[in-house]
Design goal:
Length: 221
Amino acid sequence: MSKVILLHGAGANASQMRRLERALEAQGFMPIAISYESDAVLSAMIAELAAKVKEVPLAGKTHVVGHSMGGLLGRAVVMMLPEAHRGRLVQIASPNRGAERIGWIPRPWMVRRHVSQGYFEIARGSPSLDLLPVPTCEVGIVCGTRRVDLRVPTSLGILAASLVFRTERKEPSDGAVSFGETDLPGMRDRISLPYAHDWLPQAKETAVQVGHFLRMGAFRR
């Protein structure tokens, strides 16, 4: 039974991955959802996860699945695993090229004090992205194509920002991360699903596709 390390996104905790955890368990995997301090800088998050990954008993292949920020950190986490135990990585809506929309966030201190420094470090053009290795394992990427989903409260904020800053894109986007921003050199496969950014890790179809990639190294079509 393969283990799967699950990494949540920024501003969340392991409970964000609960549905995906249960779905992967039903598929025969042994998921392990890890919480980390997502308000820290990237280097601190990587260091925290390094300590926690050491506590995961290794037997056979261990895969990594992460949503948004968690998928970016997953690039470092999967490379922490010994090669003999290193499985596959699935990123769910992770801005490998940096997230342009983070640049919309105003810079005054009263805004920044409520937004983690790590969040700004994954903005488009941030040198901190260079801290993240390009994995040597097989990587699958799940993208969203629905910009707004009323099941997710953050979608309303994203919609409002689109109207205020008039930065609506023509390319497919999940409302927070565009299709092109998920590009990663050497990725094995990529698939788009009709969900908004924060709903992607909750969707049943996402769980099906994640499980298929972890088993087969390709998404189901």
